[in-house]
Amino acid sequence: MLSPVDIALIATVALVVFGSKRLPELGKAVGQAISNFKKGMDEETTQPTEAEVRKPGEDDTSQ
Q: What's the predicted TM-score (pTM) here?
């Protein structure tokens, strides 16, 4: 578990390395990446509907 001192040290190093103007952009990018990852995981765990599942021998070209 990280103590408050550890978190402050990490934040200070990040501020020095990336600069104060770049940190909000990085935070936004990380937040969007996490959000997209969670959305992808939710889509992966849902079962496909009957309309989405093709039966063997069906193809899209026959009409």
A: 0.52
Question: Which tokens go with 52?
Answer: 């989405």
In a domain, 54, yes or no: no
Convert the pLDDT of each residue in 4-57 to its tens digit: 999 999 999 999 998 988 989 999 999 999 999 999 888 777 666 666 666 666
- The tally of domains found in the chain comes to 1
Q: For helices 23-45 and 4-18, what crossing angle results, to 10°?
A: 110
Question: Which residue reads 């899209």 in tokens?
Answer: 60
First-to-last C-alpha distance (Å) of the chain: 61
Residue 23 CB neighbours (<10 A): 14
